[in-house]
Design a protein that fits this description.
Layout (H helix, E strand, L loop, with lengths): L2 E7 L3 E8 L4 E9 L5 H16 L6 E8 L1 H7 L6 E6 L3 H5 L3 H5 L4 E4 L15 H11 L5 E6 L7 H14 L3 E3 L9 H32 L5 E4 L5 E3 H6 L7 H14 L4 E6 L4 E7 L2 E2 L7 E2 L2 E2 L7 E4 L5 E6 L6 E8 L1 E2 H7 L1 H13 L10 E4 L9 H9 L4 E2 H4 L4 H11 L3 E5 L2 H7 L8 H12 L13 H27 L8 H5 L2 H7 L16 E4 L3 H12 L3 E2 L7 H7 L3 E13 L2 E6 L2 E5 L2 H22 L6 E13 L2 E15 L7
Parallel strand pairs: 1-4, 4-9, 5-6, 5-7, 7-8, 11-23, 19-22, 23-24
Antiparallel strand pairs: 1-2, 2-3, 9-10, 11-12, 12-13, 12-16, 14-15, 17-18, 20-21, 20-22, 25-26, 25-29, 26-27, 28-29
Helix pairs in contact: 1-7, 2-7, 5-6, 9-21, 10-11, 11-16, 12-14, 15-16, 15-17, 16-17, 17-20
Amino acid sequence: MAYLLGVDTGGTYTDAVIVDEAANAVVASAKALTTRRDLAIGIGQAVDAAIAAARIAPADVALASLSTTLATNALVEGQGGRVALLAIGFDAGDLERAGLAEAMKGDPVVAVPGGHAHTGLEAAPLDLSRVEALARELAPGVVGFAVAARFATRNPSHETAAREVIRAATGRPVTCSHELSARLNGPKRALTAVLNARLIGMIDRLVTACERHLAAIGVTAPLMVTRGDGALISAAMVRERPIETILSGPAASIVGARWLTGAEDALVSDIGGTTTDVALLRGGLPEIDPEGARVGGFRTMVEAVAMRTTGLGGDSEVHVDTATLAGGLFLGPRRLIPVSLLAAEHPDMVHAALDTALAAEVAGELDGRFVVPMTQAADGLPPRDAALLARIERPMPAAQALASRLDGAALDRLVARGLVMLSGVTPSDASHVLGRLDAWDGRAADKALRIMGRRRNGRGERIAPDPVAMAQAIVDQLTRQTALCLLEAAFGEDPAFAGQDAAQLARHPLTAAGIGGHRGVIEATVRLGVPVIGLGASAAAYYGAVGDRLGARMILPEHAGVANAIGAVVGQVSQRVSGIVTSPAEGRFVAHLPAGPRGFGDRAEAMAALEAALTAEATERAQRAGAEEVRVTVRQEVREAEVEAKRMFVEATITVTAAGRPRVARG
């Protein structure tokens, strides 16, 4: 009998499930807190508890698979290591496109001559000695490099040559843009490569932590990781391409939702600690975003489920509006450590700080806020940031760490780098006060919400009279923002509103009137036409009110809290590669092979050569990704133009998909 182990590491919790492959059923599940300082601890606690509850031996596990929201969360929160981009053959205007300048956030960008033309021929030579000198100069201040060359998808030779030189000179990891996407649009490929380079260290730590614990307890099964399109890849491959794990957790949740409910058509909404992820199941299958995954405001070239990810979760930061007369609240997009959780781990320090704040007559801006150091590489920090990080040697009140107002900006930069986490009031704390959650320190949550409620709006009135009123206001705001997430997704997926701004439609006064059931001279009714499957550990606590607000049928399946971990082990391994055949002149055809362009005098020969090369590439990738009994499918798209009543070949795109179930350990 084969047992499958699924693990999902989220921003707050790490989940583990044991699935009986023969019975197609969950036999045990467990949760543990995600331990950011050492991921192996949280993973180990969840895995050990699930295996014990299933009453099986670790050696009985035939397949282990991992999904995660850590990469998604990092991009939503603007976190990641400092990287350098080597742009080959691009000019300043190119680099401004696709949001690349914003994404670099001050990280170094160096442009050098080189790259290729659309034909695959060299546009300018690449000076590798210059590349080596730049790499040695930049290496001390970065954790990795991204390399993007003009038309690298037509000829990758400059990217691969630069990668080998940089690796040899610095030992740092290097991401090449052509390995992440076969499509044109160099600036967007460069952006994708930059984000990939930022995530390498984080995902490597996660995979290593999981592998280390599985080996220690005697699990010999191969470790797989869920990709953003729901397919599985080997742990070795994901170390090179961590960008493919963005939307890994949400994609696994879609697979898990379908497996748990059998639903054909539904909105799937997964609330975690950091994000809410919404996608549409249509005919039992999730849609794949043809434009590439969009996360944290950036449109990447990573194939992933069509998912709307919003920085809204159970641990979202609560912002208080004290500028306007009426005041108000807004949640996210940054994740905080809930005060109640920090107090459970450091009770004396947290309660002493909260009691001091309550004793003061006037509420301070940093009251109820704490800073917590993380164990990550801190290369290339400015002096002020380095000095502040040195002071934050242990969890402490934020006011104690900041020596001046200038340190506030430095703290934001440390948080963005993932070197420090903030702790403060979150919806999880509100749930403790309302009696919906009792996992951590409810007294600390009560004190923190009392402190927040003492802040005043523009009229000079307190935000809330007591902790319960403050908590209810936070949960009500979570309900409103979640409803907006679902409405946005619904408008975005409804063909009747194609091409329109889904966010604007969701916030339109007529939509609000329809949701509220307005009855006057105009009568308006708006409701969702499909049910909502609510997933996540806190879905049961929050989604009843969301369903009431939207007039929607809410499905909260058993095991909804561990759907991601379930989805991680019931998916397929799949690898897809594409290539094109062009015709630079009549009677001449160029197949842009993975190894570089090759000319032919016959169109059929060019297409056959490309199909054979792509089939070999896709099959090898699928096997390296952990598939067995690989099946291959081929799709061809030929573009032709009519010139003087004669059909002329323009180009052809061939896409090869190799898929199969993951290899499992036998006996």
